[in-house]
Structures are given as structure tokens and as C-alpha cells.
Fold each of these.
Amino acid sequence: MAYKSLAECVSDLEKHGHLIRIKEEVDPYLEMAAIHLRIYENNGPAILFENVKGSPFPAVSNLFGTLERSKFIFRDTLPKVQQLVSLRNDPMKALKNPFKYVGSAMSALSALPLKTPSAKNNFLKTSISKLPQIVNWPMDGGPFVTMPQVYTEDVDKPGVLNANLGMYRIQLGGNEYVQDKEIGLHYQIHRGIGVHQSKANALGIPLKVSIFVGGPPSHPLAAVMPLPEGLSEMTFAGALGDRRFRYFYDDEGFCISADADFIITGTVHPNENKPEGPFGDHLGYYSLTHPFPLMKVHNVYHKKDAIWSFTVVGRPPQEDTSFGALIHEITGSAIPQEIHGLKEVHAVDAAGVHPLLFAIGSERYTPYLKERRPQEILTIANHILGKNQLSLAKYLFIAAKEDDENLSTHNIEHFLQHVLERIDFKTDLHFYTNTTIDTLDYSGDGLNSGSKVVVAAAGEKKRTLWDKLPENLNFPDGFTNPQIAISGIFTLQAKPYKNAEKTAAEIASLNISLMDFDLSGLPLIILCDDSSFTAQNINNLVWVTFTRSNPAADIYGINDFTNNKHWGCKGSLIIDARKKPHHAPELIKNEAVEQKIDEMKKEGGSLFGLI
């Protein structure tokens, strides 16, 4: 379907049973988000909120809530776009099979942005305070735009084809922002907008920013796509939506998406920041209050039939999980093609994406030797950690494809066990200290700051993993409730974290207690606050372990040593995944709001049969 607008998409989804309407008034403070979360958890439809308290505009969410619905939305264009991305990654394909790819080339040409000055007549003006003031989580610093398309241009190379379109959250009010005149612009490191702001700052001029909300569904997807170099987000949006990206410039020189439902225009001046946040984020914790760029609002435009688009982020899986699955469907092997020897890479959604990467690579450096060990895959690991947003990863587990041709990075439990069966903790842990991690990850020692570790495994199995604890296993005071999480890993409940010195003493006593036990089949021990919760399922295990630990600070080992600045251990590895005082609080729902949603699911309520 070549949707001309968000309204057309909403109508099509409703026609085919993929969308429900909630007609009663709903409060944008926590209630809309709570409804969205309940419906998403039940694999439910998209939701159109017809009556948003305090706003004249309706709002829609959960458009991309399932991969099946996302594929339905792009049912006519997905194969062509997959070919287009493949062609951009490997242009030789067109020469080898020109007839197969001629349609892809035409798709790219026909998707070039189209300037439409006459579209100015389709827009009215409003104010920030009249937009749906949606607050998702109780400790959020104010209402946020959670499905924005933030457009900026390169001051050295102006124009739509050299522009950047990204999805960076926008705080509409609260904190120190002047209502209707100022909003907060939050973006993380390794984002295209940062390059544009740096160039504008160097010239001492304000950066013009246009924030689009709504429009055809191909537009928000384009804003989050990791596109090949030289492929514009606007061109991609046109190809995916089978409709050219239409735009014009307003009287102040701001680019306006002619198909968007709302556009907020404004300027970001050099070195002008204000506190932004907190915000309940996709790791399952709040990102805290920090200074981020201040955007001075110029105009707020909207279409006559405008629909506000939003999502809710929190501990995975959420709607952005389905976004990620759709991106994988489109890009396929794009990253492996860019890194020689890489077969597969997967940012593990259940662990919050950036904290944990799984990868499979070739190990061919010494094929003439019988015994295989990590060599080439270490080179590949370095390449991965130097690649765009992959460089924000904190834990990278990498295995050799030669050890199991059927190994998949998407089977979390099996992949972890494959690595644990083969790893040698004396040689195969490689740390990167005092480096950058994800902005949203507070397990490190400062904003954007922490450490990384590569956990590399290649060769024959070194051990058989156990699914039971040894009898007569004794732990020192303070350690209780050992639980097998999966074969090879057990969780151990410890007293609440105090400080590094106290932890060192605790680990030393644990080392003494366990040093004489045979734990060869349990190579990984996870210290945590709640052992039963952490071991309950694989998602809990990876979420707790990898969001609550900083490798250089929180990895220990039984009988550990340092040799030529290389750290290793002769026994089991220990990861301290307890909550630390500097960690951000986790997201907890509001009980009163949850009870109200429970009422709505009863017979006669608008959510009856859906949750």
C-alpha cells in the first residue's frame, strides 16, 4: 500500500482487523501508556485513542507492535526494498544479474524526494501545549515525543539529500523549559545530528531543526534504519512507502515534510543546554536528568485531520523490539557484508540491545593446526566494536562458525552454552577499559563511560555443562539461594551492594569457599539481588546480568590472576550483577493506573477481550 498519510494507514489497519478505537476520554498522564503496554503484552492490535484529555488531537500507538503487522503495512514494497539495500551493499550484484535488480534501481530513482510548495496550504498552526502531553512512566520529567522524525541539514552541504532524519526523543515540557517556547532535544553519541550540530557550532550559527510526527509509516521506520553510506533516509522512506518523500520550505527556511501530521520547527544555538529527563527508557530503567540541547520553538504546524503517533519504551520486549525485527528483515546480511569474515551479529533485545552483542565469525588463521583457538574472531571483534552504534556494545560474545555451522545468535540460551562449553577463561577474555558505552547505560562510571569485554570461544568442547549444583556446596555468610538458570550458569543471591572495597572482601571469601570444589560444569556464576527472579527465565537472566554490570569493575573469577596485563581466571567466572548506588532506578508501573486499566478489561469495557 502506498499510504499518503498516517490516516490512510490507520483506516487500512482498521479495515483488516489490525486496529481498535478507544472512544472514551483517556488521560495522557500514564493511562495511555498503560493501555498500550497491556495490549502490546497480549500481542494486540494498533490503538487509536479518539479522545485524549487536554488535547484536540487523537493519537495512535502500537502500529508496529508485531512483526506480522509491520509486514502487512509494507506488504507491497518489502521485497523491492530488501533488494535495494542488498544492491547498495554489493553493487556488483546488478552487473551479475541485471534483469533481477532493474526493478530495485527504478525503485531508488522513483523514490527521490519531491519538492511540493503548494502543500503549504494544507497546514494549520497550533502550540506545544495543545499536543497530546503523553507521560509514560511515573518518574518521567515531563511529556515526551516518542515517535519523532528529527530532520537536520548539513550547513556545508544543505539540501534534503544530504540531510539526516533520526529518531531522538523530545521533551515537550517540565523541568526548566519555558512552556510553548522551549523543548528538549536528546540524542546519543554516534548520531548523525551530532555532526550537523558540531558544524553549526563551529560557525557560531544556530542549527535549524524540524521535528516531524506521523506521516506515512515508512517515515518513522526510515528514521531508525541503519542505512548504507550514501542512501538518504528520505529516499529510503520513498522506496519503502512507494511514495516520494514530499517536502517544502516554510517562510523561515525550515524543511517541512508535506505528508507529516505535525511539524515542530526551531533552532538549537551553540552551547545552549537545559536539564532533560528523567525518561523511562528501553533498557528497563530511567535515563536520568542531564544537560542536553535546548530547542527554541518557532512554529508548530499540523494537518486538519492530524493524528499524533507515539510509542512506549521500557524493559524489552516492547514495540521497538518489533521495529528491530523489521529492520533485520530489511537489512539481512548488511553488516556481515561490511566486515570481512563476519557471518552474523545480533544485538540481544532481551538485554536492552547495546549491553550485549552475539557474533559468529570465521576462524581461518591457522587451518594447518588441529587445535583451533580465537585469533581471526578477535580481529572481527575489534572491527565490530569500531562500527557505528555497534561500538556502544558492552559485552561481545563471539564464536567461530567452523565449530557449528548451524549455530545462531538468535537462540540466546544455546549460543551462551556453545561459548561456555569452549571458552578458556585463562586466555579468552579481552577487556577495553575507560571507554564509551551507551548513553542510556548507567552501569559504568559516568555518562557514556564504562568498559567492554570480548568473550571469545573457538575450538572443540572443553567441558560438559551441568544442570545441577554439586552436593555439599558451601557458601560463606551473605550468599544464599543458588539456582541453576540454564545449564552451565547458576545465580547466587548476595547481600545488597555497598562499595568496591566491601565487594572485594566478599569475592575473596567466596573464592576461598569455592576454590576446592569441582565447578568445571558451571563456568559462570551470577551474583544478584534476587536469585529466583534472575534464574526464572532466559530473558530475566540476560537482562539482570548485562544491564547491571560494568565488565572491568564487576567481573571476578575463582583463582584469578594477571599476567603481562592480561586478566584471567583458572576457575569459574563471576559477574556481580547486583544493583549499585550509581545505577538508575528500574521502571515500575503505577498501581492506581493499573487498577483503572483492570476495570476497562471487564465485560462492557473498551478493553474487554483484548487483555
Note: Residues 91-102 have pLDDT under 50 and may be disordered.
Amino acid sequence: MSGLQQNMPFMMPQYREGIPRVIQPWIYLLIATTFQFSGGVYMGSLHQMMGAMDMMMEDVLMCLYCNLAGMAIYFPILLRMKFRFTNKTLLTAAATGVLLCNLAVPYITFKPLLWLVCFFSGMCKIQGTFECMSNIQLWMTPKRDFTVFFPILNAVILGSMQLSDLLCVHFIHHYHWTCMHWFMCGVMLLNLIFIRLCIKDFRFMRKFPLFGIDWAGSALWAALLVQIAFFFTYGDYYDWFNSKVMRILLMTILCTLCMVVRRMTTIRHPYIEPKMWTYRRLVPVLIVITIAEAFLVTEHVLEEIFLSEIMHYEETVSVKLDWGTLTGVWLGCVFCYWWAHIKRFNYLRLIGIGFFSIIIYLVLMYFSISTEIHISRLYLPVIFRGFAYAIMSITFLICLHELVSFPHFFQSLSILQMLHMVVGGVLGAAAYKQGMSYYVPDNISRYSGMFDRIELSKSHLHLEEQLSVFTEQVMQISLKQIYGWTIYACILTFLLLLMWDSPVRKQLKKIPIWKDVRRQIKNSFWRTSHRIKPTEDVG
């Protein structure tokens, strides 16, 4: 039956008559790209948003992490939504949600409400993307091969991230920071009009009710993830455990974790099942992706400090580096496709190539820290960074699908994205900020002896100018020290990875057909005494 389906021409029956079949999947690919362009906040407008809405950097970063948390938490529900509602309903709801969130964000000043809106925006974003990409999956890979699907998926997602940042800075330079929100509202409105006129309600199988979903468990996982993000994002601001707020929050995190574990082990169908954690080598894979994300987050901390505080680049200048990152991302996707699909090489070596690319990026940045360089010298490091990010994102998704059976794939994917998009980033950012908090005062105390009356009298610069030059030099030394320690840690991880046995087989499993997936989900919620006949799932 599956071989017969592979030989059939690709069709999208949800389209109304009159839409040429050849452009139907391309339209869905474009809609998926528009969803990936959206966000609760846009980091290109970070400083403008801080000034206009009277926020700290930590407040805006918390909005970003809430948006990412909403995407990560929602993964286990995606299939259930697909089997319950039609494609038109889900796309309409996702586009409407993104539109309303973009309308509301610039006018919300109450931070918890703003974080909640960003969280909801992330859920709508991943729902819309999944609905589009899952419907054109067979168009991209008729043989249901993840080594084809994941490189294309990440080319769309990671490429859209860079292009969205470029577009946002363009709007800021020529217009206003809120124009990006209004632009996305217009794009989502066009999506809604197209869905209303060109898409019809179509079910490829019988409706499957939303029973057995652990909604309370999903809320606990979301609370735990947001609390962890808050703890590490605001840790430096509250001076960590010297603050009562951080001590109370740590106790709250531990209590929430205990509630999550208790619910996961006591109810029949928890949001994340305990069996998911028992798969061989799954936990090491999750640890490695968390470490890799902690290394890559230097982009948002150390690299940002270098560009803004030392080079004094405006957003319109520093955003040019996104073109280098975009180039690296697409090169990484093509390389993964060649390595995993065409050559069928070992996946562990591909992870090693990703870590080696991170090392090259860190080393190049280490030797580029100077006020005398041209911006063109930074293109090569960011190309390696984008190359490494694409390799890591694709390879770990492929490994995850091979390690975990399909009924637990989306649950493990949710945990992977929690660590990849939120936990790894906030851990790394907190470590780098703490390092800067230590090394900058330490270097000031070490090198401030250079300033005395004789040296000051020899200089033709004013005191303020000398202090400015001295501060920049101290920042350069501090950044090099932290980059150096990060390089040592990355090399050590790379060497440990070389000694690790391959976590997955060389041959990859195929994506199961949707009817088989529905049958597995239905069997998992049915009484064990009841046996479903194959004819019950027809239609």
C-alpha cells in the first residue's frame, strides 16, 4: 500500500479548483516562510523597543525566550491537532493568532501579559509552519526520507530568521520599529484572505477527538521552562543568590520540577511519558545539543558586545553580517543533504564537523577582536557559525528520529527544542555575562596602574578620551579571555565526542504514513482489551 502511494502523483486536495497544481506546494512553502518571519518581538528592534517601552534588555530577551518556549512546548500536541481539525481551520487559527499578537505587542507595557502574548505567538507560529510543511512533505520527499525533509525544513526556518532580522532593521532605519509588526499583520491578513478564498475544508481521515491530552501537564512544563528562562536571564540583574527574588525563584523551580515528575509518573497519559527517557543514548544526545547551543549563544552576548561596545557599529552596519550567517546556514543545509542523503555517511562524524566549525568560528573571533579591523573580516567567522548551527539543527533532528520510536518522537522533539532553543541559550548567556562581570573589573584593577600623572601629561588626549580608550582595551582583553575559555571548553567537548561510539545507525528509518500514525495514537489511548480492526480506520 505504501509503495502504491509513493507512485501516485502528488496532490493537495484541500485546494479549490482553479489553482495550478504545479504552484500549490510552492504557495504552502511561502506561507510557512511567512510564519517563520513572525515573532513576538524582533531582536533587530531590541534597542528601539527598550527605549520606547521603558524596558531593560532582560525584559526583551524574556519576551524572546517566551516565544521560543511556546514553540517548544506545543510539539506534542501538533499531531493531535492535525487529526482533529482540518488544514484550513488550523492555518486560519494560526494566522489569526500571529496577527493579533503582532497587533498587541507594541502596546502592552505589563510585562507578564507581554510574555504571555509572546508565548501564544510562538504556539501559533509553530502550528502554522507544521501545517504547511507536513502537507508538502511528500512533495519534497516521495520516499518519506528525513535526510531530505530536515535540510529543506531548516533551510526555511533558519533562513527566515536571518531575513526577518534584515527586514526589521530596514524598517527601523527608514521608518519606525513598530513597522515590522504592522508588516507582519499585513502578511498574515493576506494569508487569511488566501486561505478563505483558495482553501477548502478537507479531511484526509476520520476526525480524532482531543481526549487523553494532559493539559495540566503541559502547563507545568511551560511554567518550568519559563521559570528557568527567567532565572538565568535576570540572574545577573538580581545578583544571583544575593537577592531574595532568586532564592525564592530557585525554590519555585524545584517545586515545579517535582510536580512535573510526579505527574509524569502517576497519571496514565502524561504530557511527556516516562518511557520517552528510557531510549538508549537519548539523554547524551540531549546533553550534547545543550552544550552546542551554549557555545553558539556567543553570537548574542560576546559578539554583540564586540560589535556595539568596541566597534560601535549601528544596527544597519552590524546587520550586514546576517548575510554571512545566511550563507553559512544554506551551505550547512546543502552539506547535510549531501552527507546524510547522498553519501549516507556516519551521523556522529557530522556532529563532529559541526563542533569543529564552532571551534573555527570561536578561534577566528578570538583573533578578530580589535578596533582596527574592517567588517569584512567578520564575514568568515559568521559563515562558520551559520554552517555549524545548520549542521547541529539538522543532525540532531535526524538522530532523534532514529533513536526514538514515532509515538514518542514529538515528545522527545519537544524536550530537544526546550534545551536547544531555551535552556542551552540562557545557560550559556548567563555564563558569559558572569564572566564579563568578573573579568572587566579584574582587568581594570590590574591595568589601571598605567594611569598616573606622568603618563597623563605625556598624552595629547583629554582625560575622558583616555578613559574611553582604556575601557575599550579592557573590554577587548576581557572578551579574548572569555573566548579563550570557550575555545578550550569546545575543544574538550570535541575530543570527548570523538571517543563516543556512534549514537545512531547509518541507515535511517522512513517516515510512517499518516494513517499508521493515527492508528498508533488511537491504540495508545484505547483499552488494552479492545483490538482495533484495520477496517475501523478506513476513511
Note: Residues 1-5, 502-508, 527-539 have pLDDT under 50 and may be disordered.
Amino acid sequence: MLIKSRYVRLLLLAALLCSVFPASVSASAPDKGQLETFLDEFMNSKMQEYHVPGAVVSVVRDGKAVLMKGYGYANLEQKVPADPYKTIFRVGSISKSVTSTAVMQLYEEGKIDLRKDIKQYIPDLNLSYIDHRPISVHDLLTHTAGFCESIYAVGRDKDRQVSLEDAIKTGLPSLCRKPGEQVAYSNQGLSLAGYLVQKLSGKPFEDVIRERIFKPLQMNHSSFHFEESEPNLARSYSYDSGTYKAAPYSYIHHLPAGALNSTAEDMTHYMIAHLQQGQYEGSRILSDKTAELMHQTQFTINKNMPGMAYGFYERYQNGLRLIEHDGGIDEFESYMYLLPSEHTGIFISTNSGEGTNVIEQLIGAYLNRFYPDTPKLTRATNPATVQELKSIEGYYIPNRAHLHGPFNFGQNLSAVPLKAVEDGVITMNDQRYLQIGPDLFRNESSQELLYVDAKNHTLALSSIPTMEYERQNSPIYNPTLNIGILLGLALVYPLQVILALILWIVGILRHKKARFDWLSTLVSVLFVVYFLFAISTSELFVNGIPSWSYLFLYLPVLLLFVLIARLIVRIVRKQRVTVMQVLYLAAAAGLVIYLYSWNFFSV
């Protein structure tokens, strides 16, 4: 699927990434022999360690392809080797870089203004702004438009795939924040940028990309149009308990955000074009000036932190600035790294979800091998006292964890505590960060930076430039407590069913008139059905949100009204009201209020 919890994957490998900003590196690039030896050793070792069946790697330098290699199998069942020239991999969100390039072509031609309201170009766009603050193309390309995260209606089934226009008109999430405030990676935001390309060009998005990017760059095996019958298409796999299982293919609605299929060879053409400021073998897709603008830092939370370019994000590691993009879909994992100062680009794609570990370790191993440089850790001369640092303590939640619907509660699983432990030292995720400047900290055991924006109650990690963390400002917020409350309230219902059945059976065995609270038991069963529905929404709504779903979304509210009505009827009729019935109603009311506070009743 297109939507993957990218921030979870990046958190696992954060210690391997990003650094402070040294000016230069003295090491030299490897020759072909050195590079091939390094890649063979690295890939063979890591693919075996993480059970990755196949991969392709391509490296370019100084306008030429230095090395292209395939490792393992593109198709395990048929024993088809991974071929950098022929094997087509699904590269997921690397699509966003291509989409951004198409947008910049329109900018270069004067057809769009990067800073103007996008509704000037899409007047019928059904999107309500916050405080009338318009969204610009700049906001879309830097992931600062303010969209909430959405895991619904992204598409999977071929026969239920909708057009890009329908996906935009019916599948855009609402806004969580004003544009320009925070980076929050958004698939739908970049899809909207792609729809803008389609709208202004007057042609289907995939046709525009083929004519204006793939054709001039001779990317003859690349496409945003997906066919499972393509003979050179790689198969992807999951691995569990010694067994590989082929993953199903997805047919996503938001093509510009993640539908690109390509080969390692084609991606060398794309990397060379960007490293040469828009030019490839006599063809030009961007002017020097436009390409330079696209590659510049366009948004960052702080000048000392890596930020967003247009269609790329930054990494600073081993004294080098990289611009890059990754992608994951259907167990395919890919990464494209560009090192502009070294005129070098690296592309890697794997056909296993575990390939994430391989691709995100590759760049660190490559830089440490050929550009070794470990900036010294220089602590701030006048660090904040532990008492001053306590003002930034609290639980911080990834801003991509703010979802509509039941899965919004999942942010409690991703909340991380930040604590002040001594003067100039804080901890987060059990990692120690030492203060090196105003509001700036560095991981004690790696090059990772952490910046705290105390004014806006946010923080950012250099290892994850595509999102920020927001502090939960409530003094009583505790993720463990929230999870415990929900579980406690939810367990009332299966326990009520079990208890009612036990009492009924015991009464029968004792030959007594058995009273069975049919209404309460039916309500409990329906509450259990609701919870099963709630945890299944990501799968049920993957292609779209059906109208019948709203009945289930509001089922707890309807059941609460049923219990209230029963209580009123019994009081009016002067019938006996038991303590258990009152407590049961109170538990149901508490649950509904709690679910509402966590946004369970919307999608």
C-alpha cells in the first residue's frame, strides 16, 4: 500500500542518519572497482541478514552511470534474477520527486505562481481553509500545507480504482493546521500537486509525465500506469518464520504520490538530469535556474536542521549535504540519494518490506567508507539548567499521527516522553541528547540533531525531516493511562455477556426462574461488533468510505440512547431499576464521551 507508517520505520534507524553542518569533505569518490566490491559485500551480507529476495542498485557520477547491478531474484517462484536494465520495481513515493519536477516545469513556463492560492488554478476545489489562510503550490511541494494524515480511500483493488480527479474531489483529508506552520508529510498533498499538473496541461497526469519527463530522459521502462501482466515486473514478498509470501499489488487512487514503476537504469537518467541541473544527453527538462531553485532548502524548522526542498528532503551527514526521497508500496522499498557536491547519485530498490533496513543502512555505510568524517561533539558553553529544561518536558506525538477516525487513538502508541535529566541534557526514546546551541541538542552516540521550538511546543529530529513532534500540553496526559482507560471501558461489554450467560446457566441448573437481561446483553454484543469494526476500518475503507459505514461509526451513540430510553421507560412505569443497570448505563456514557474526545466518530 501507498500509505505506510514511514515515521515508524525511520524512528527505528534514526541513529544512523543526519548530522551537523560541516563545510567540506576531503575524501574522494570510489572508482568502479572499489564501488563494486563495497556494494557486493554490503548487499550480499544485508540481504541475507534481513531476508531480502532481490534488489537493484545503480550509481551515477559526473553525468554517467558508474555501476548498475542486480542482486538475488525479482521473482522467487520463477527464479528470475533481478536485472538493473529490465526489472521493473514499484518505487512508491519517489513518484513525488517526479511530480514535483513536472510542477516546476509549469512554474518555469509562467503557468503557476508557487506562492499563490491553489484555488486560482482549481476553482472547484472543495477544501475549507483555516482562518482563510490559503494553500500555495510551495506548501504542497514542501509538505507544509497542513493536511491531516489519512489512511482511508487510498485504493488497492483494480476494479475499484478511481480517476485522479475523483480521488482529489472525494478523497482529500481536512486540514489540521495552517499552511507554513509545520512539515507533515502528505500523500494527498502531493497528489493534489499532480492534479494541478493535469488541470493546467489539459491532459491526463500520466501522459504529461511520459511526454515531458520520461521521453526526453529516455526512461523507456518507466510509467505511472500499472499492469500486473507486465513480464518484467518484479514480485514483492513478506518474510515470516522461514517462509516468503508474495504480496498483492495495489492500484492506488493518488497516482502522483506513489504509482511510479521504473528500472534502476531509468532512474540513473533521472538522477543525472537533476545532478546536471535539468539536463540529460542534450535534452533539458528544467533550466539551470529552476533546477537550482528546486534543490534549495525551501522550508526548515531551524537553520541548523535539514529541511525540505521541492520534491526532495535534506540530509546532512559526514560533512555532506544530500537531497533524497524514499518510497514504499506493496512490500517494495526504494531510496534515491543525490550528493550534489560530489555529482553523485545512488538508487536502490528491494522487493521486500525488510528491505527498509538495507536501503537506510546503505547510505551510512557508503559515506563512512568513502567519506569518513565524524564531527566532534562540542557542548554549549552555557547550557540551560535542568530547571529551565523542565519547561520543555512532556509527551511528544508525531504530527502525522493525528488521524480522523478510530485510528486517531493510535497516537498514544507513538507518543514519546522528553525529560530533562541534568544541565544541558535531555532524554527522548531512551536516547541522551546534549545541548550544543540554543534549543539545539545532539545525540550522545550519533550525529542526530534534535531541535525544540519551545514557543510552538514542537520538536524536530534531523533524522526525520518529513515531520515534527507536537507536545501534549495537558498536564494529565499519559499514553499508558489513555490506553488503560479505553481497554477498561471496552472490556465491560464482553465481560457483561459472559457474566449474563453464567448467571442464566446457573439459574437453570438450580431449577430457578432464570432472568436474562436480553437488552443489556444485546447492547454489549453490538458494542463488541463496533470495536471489531473500528479496528478494521483501514482495510474496509482502503478503496473508499461506503455510506453504510456511518451507521457503524455512530453505533455507540445509538446504543447509549437505547439504554437511556430503557431507564426513562422503567422510571415512568415505576418498574424496578437495578444498580447494575445504572452502572452499565454510566459505563456506556463514559465510553461514548471518551470515544468522542478521541475522534472515533469521523473518518
Note: The CA atoms of residues 435 and 441 lie 4 Å apart.
Amino acid sequence: MSRWTDLWQAHVPRAAVVVHDLAVVWLVWHGLHWLRYAVESDVPPHSLWSPEVLIVLGLQGLAFWWVGLYRGLWRFASVPDLWNILKASLAGLLGILLGLFLYNRLELVPRAVLVLYPIVLAALLGAPRLVYRAWKDAQSDERRKTSTRVLILGAGQAGEALVRDLRRFGTYQPVGFLDDAPRLRGSKMHGVPVLGRIQDLPEIARETAAQLVVIAIPSADATALQRVVGICERSGLPFRMVPRLQDVLEGRSLPGELKEVAIEDLLGRKPVLPDWKAIRAWLGGRSVLVTGAGGSIGSELCRQCARHGARRIALVELDELALMTTEAALRRDFPDLDFVPVLGDCGDAAVIGHALALAQPDAVFHAAAYKQVPVLEAQLREAVRNNVLATHCVARACRDADVGTFVLISTDKAVDPVNVLGATKRMAEMVCQSLADRGTRFVTVRFGNVLDSAGSVVPLFREQIRAGGPVTVTHPDVTRFFMTIPEACQLILQASAIGTHEAVYTLDMGEPVPIRVLAEQMIHLAGKQPGRDVAIVYTGLRPGEKLHETLFHSDERYRATQHPKILQAEPRKVAGAEVDAAINALRDACARYDLAALSSLLREAVPEFEPIGAHGNATSTATVVAFPARQARRI
């Protein structure tokens, strides 16, 4: 019964539209003939149904089908639909001329009928559609009397599309636009007036009794968006924004969805535009393996590889819940790909050997690592075991298996290490350099903090704000480099695709962000005021932390790559024999859980490692340079 009901609902309304349109054709054809001979006494015979009429109906119906007139809905009839009707009328006229010429040489068909036919037909077909839409819109207007009153910031294409979407849903009532373009002042769009400038929002919001503000400026950079958000906060109204096209294309937002302004929207980073052609050419049809596949970076790397052509992805993960969750999400979103889950420690030679045998990867992304600076200061043995020895285990296994590319996910803290995390990741880089003596291409990619990753300050701040505060910041002047998880993974793939043998790449992290400012912005986005509603407390730098991070060491000469957000550093020289000896000594100290030996061995193996004081006073004498300015890269 349900099947017949579905067929009825699907086909009967469309069939009724077809019958309506053909009835209008019949009416126009006979009506024009009647008008042509209305003032003449000698009227030639004209049958209501004749082969000539059937030819007209058949050819005009084919023209309707050819133009695609029945793919649209009357409820949303607009100018494009009227244009299609006019095209169908003209195409039908041409067909009728040809058909009747072949049938009876256009005998007894007045020229006036042929001239007026497409004009009258287009008018009589378009009028019912527009009347129907006006009637439906009037019904929506009645519902909108109880709907939310919305002010839209931005009267461009995004604002125009937003008005149509809001009216379609019926739960929102657009009451006006605000836009800084003087030429738009006083104009209307879909009947909605442009009431003033964006900075006038607080006053206009009171005058219009608005209940919600929507930012429809998806092209605005972070500076402009910060200004707009500040104005929205002064209005006291809740606000949302139209998602950027890139977020929609990558599945992070839905078309027509209103999203909350996220902290990454305000951090001053321009969208990354990777060379997708190069990435797909390198990745397409390949098998890849990702360690730490259940983590923030690892899971997104799996998703990016699946999206851009990998045929098989092996997921190596120690956390069973993270492995299960990541695998389920990937199988749901990419059902045609081959996924190979491997539960285990990638530092176990048997586990990584088993994973390599199952996946036979062309590329391995080593994302598994411990990354929490204060934790690792007190967990030296586990930091060395997981960040150094596990990296050596995976990298050596990949070299012995002749894997095409091995990509180490490193950190900016390895540039001039002053904490255990930086020293162990620097040692991991040295391990990869020492093994780069055969066919496997070893690539190292460094970047800083990742927004919203597990253990980062963003989810911590968000939870503290939700609890009413206080928000804990280590130091008023502390800064960090940030990028989003998808952006970091896109640049990792880009660096991997263009990477040369034994290459070290640093991602352009943008400008360093003061953590105090980050906390204040997140409090504002939650609709609260720093200091008044949520306190900010400075707790002091934790063990291993320093005020500012750096991306390049002075001993690593850098040069531009084909991608503007990726620079290549010339690796510092390492002696393979010394690295091997250090690995053996570290492995022996780990087996004995000898923390004193581990500390001494790590400092010997990484000469630039100078542990920082508990209060942030670095004793390192190395000269460190920040990411070079854009002008310097063109020299």
C-alpha cells in the first residue's frame, strides 16, 4: 500500500502539471485562431481536434520535456523558470513550423497566430506558477508572524540566498539588511530593506525588535569578522553566521545551515588552497598506513586520504575505542574503500610488521606520539619509549619493507628543544635522517598547536567557560601558533606529495596568537564578558613551557617550495652511527626504567636540548628565527 501511495504522490502531481500545460497550449492555439478571424465574416473551418492540433500538442510537449520544464516546482518558481518557459515556447514554435510545413505546407495557419503564439503561451504558462508561489508565500507570511525576527549583516549574494532560505523554512522573518556599501542604502532585496551600516546594529536592532543576527559575509577575513563580532556583542543579541563555501565542500557544515562563530574563524588565518591535483596524483590508488589513527591528526589524515584517492587505509591504534570509532566513521562515509584496522602499539615490532604485511602500504604517516608538555616532563621514560623508540621501530620497519614514503609528524617544539616533548621529537627527526640511506623517502613535517585537538587549550577553555570559570591561562604574554586540524592535514599531504628525500618541512602557522586573547575571544563568543561573567586566572608557566614558540632554527637554511604555506629546511647533519648507539642506550635505559640515565642520554643525543626552568627562563644560547616574512620569501 505504501508503494502505491509513494507512486501516486510522486507522479500524479507532475502529470497534472503536464496536462495543465498541454491544455494551455490547446487553449492558446484555438484562442489565437478565434481572435484572428473574430472580425471576418468568411471564417475558414477550424476543428477543435484535428491532426494539426495533435501535431501542435505533441511537438510543444516535446519542447517542454527537452527544456526540462518539469524538473522545477511551482512552489519555487522564479525568473529562471520563466526563462525556461520562454525557451520552450520558442522551441515549440520552431517544431510546429517544421511539423505543419511537412504535414500541410502550413495551410490555413495565419502568420499572426505564429507570431503571437510563443508570447501568449509563455505568459499563460508563467502566470499560474507565479500566482501559486505568491499564494504559498502569503501562507508563509502568516506563519512568520510568530517567527524569529532576523537582521542580516551583509547584502551580497550570501545575504540574498539566506533570505530565500529563511523564508522557505518559515520559522525566521528577515526584517532588514545592514551593509557598509553606500550604494545599497535604502534599497530592497526580495522586499527586505537595507536599513543602514553594520556599525549601526545596536540601534537598528532595538528599532526593529530583532531577536537574532546572522552574519552573511563568508568572504570576510579574520580582522573584519572580529570587528563584526564585536558589534554583534554590543547589540546583546544572539548571532550566527553563514558557513564558508570551503566548510560546506569539506562536510564540516551543511548548505543553508547557520553555524555559531567558532574561535578558528577569528584567528587571522586565510583558507589553505592546496594543490589538489598534485596530492591526488601522488595519493591516488595507493595504500597508506597511519599510526595513531584514532587521534585528532591521525583520524583526519585517514579521512583526507580517503577523500583524495587512497584505495586502502590501514589504521594502527593502541586505544580500542578510538580505533573502533574512527573505523566506523570512515566505513560510513567511504563505504567503497578498504580499511584495515590494527589494534596495538606501533612501537611493538610484531604489531607494525603485521600491519605492513596486511596493508602493503606505499606511504606511512607516523602520527602516534605523546604530546602533552607538562605531563611528559614527569614521564620521561614513556616519552622516550613512545616518541623515540616507537618512531625508530616504525621507520626501520618501513625501510626494511621498502615502503615508498615515510612521513613523520613532528612539532615546532623540536626546533630548539627546551622540554622533553621537543627533545624526543627532535630525536625522532634524527632517527629518520639516520635511516634515509635506502629507497624509502623520509619526510618530516613540523607544525604547532592544533585547534580543538584532544588536550589543547580550546576544549579546556570551553569546558571552563561552560562551568562559569575561571579560565586558567599560564601567563599574560604567552603565545602559540595555531591551525585547524583539516588545514594541518591538508598541508601534511601537500608536503608529502612534493617532498624530496630526507626533507624537513615547516608549515606556515600564521601569526602567533596570545593565549590571553584566545581566552577573551572564547568568553565573548559564549555571550559573556571577561572579568565580569568569567574570570581569567594566570597560573604561571608549567614545567617545560616557554613564552613563545619558534618554527625555524638558525642552522637550518630554508627555501621556498611550490606551495606558499610550506617552507623546506635544510636538515642539520647527524651521524648515523651515533644515532644508532644512542637508540641502543636509550632502549636499555627504558628496559631498566633508569630515569637518570635516560635524562643524561637524551641530552647527549640531542646537543641543542637545554631544559627550561620552571618559570620560563631558557638557558639555550641557540639563535632561533621565526617563520620568515612574505617579502623575504620572494628574495
Note: The longest helix spans residues 2-36.
